């Protein structure tokens, strides 16, 4: 681990204070047991060291080293996409919800490494988010989507260049097709009733026929791609959450905002007893998201009502895309909950 970091300093891949290029560093590392993104990554914390530039300088800093030990000769597309995001997109985002990336390079014959600013006093929750936590997630998610929508309309060349550079987008569409077909096959095993079953199948077929357009229509933007609670770090004040940091950008892609919205909502549903209660909860969260979106980007060239309808129309798509993650996060009877969610989609008009 240390020899990889020393190479990064030696080859001037690391940017220090005031953007000075640092040649060499001696430092201490602490293994960080917390791994919010992927079990295939190891996280270390740089706690102190000495920088050698023009003269030795002692420092006591807080940086997180994310390293992929299993990929020495093969760099996964997830690392490449996360690196691209930090390199091209973060300058156009609010630092309040992102961590700073100091290194996003890979040296020959070494595993991929990202060095990120340490997230001080932020914690990750393993339990279902309550309404206060979920609203904060919706607020920051709306800010991020609004920032990306503004980038799309004000600097489309950069937006398009980033999207074209993303690795694995065609593979992602193939995986989505497989997920939709598998979902349709499993529908027959559930007692949904003929009417609801036919509506869901008809909507799935429509997704299959128009998959590329669903991912790249006028409402599409840069999305996180897997926005669940394990990717969110909370900061508290007076025992209440007041800010979050979003991590795990290896799943970043171009797609509909409903992907991220549906992911965080459907993995943190309240313990309700019927579809009508779910619909009320959903509409409240959607209006809260849209309020913050329009506050952030008041000159949006797309009507708010149209954006709302687009999110509703693609909710089933988001549900299918994150089906296994949603199943994993549900703590009560899965069959009844899935049926209730599909009934809620029908009430909202998502299946029309």
The percent range for helix content is 40-55%
Uncertain parts: 15-24, 328-335
The CATH architecture designation of the largest domain is Alpha-Beta Complex
Main β-sheet, in a few words? 6 strands, antiparallel
Give the overall form: globular
Name the helix and strand elements from N-terminus to C-terminus, one letter apiece. Answer: HEEEEHEEEHHHHHEEEEHHHHHH
Would you tell me which CATH topology of the largest domain applies? Aminoglycoside 3'-phosphotransferase, Chain: A, domain 2
Pfam families: EcKL
InterPro entries: CHK_kinase-like, EcKL, Kinase-like_dom_sf
Domain CHK kinase-like: 114-299
Protein name: CHK kinase-like domain-containing protein
Features:
2 domains; 11 strands; 6-stranded antiparallel β-sheet; CHK kinase-like domain-containing protein; Aminoglycoside 3'-phosphotransferase, Chain: A, domain 2; globular; Phosphorylase Kinase, domain 1; CHK_kinase-like; alpha+beta; EcKL; 352 residues
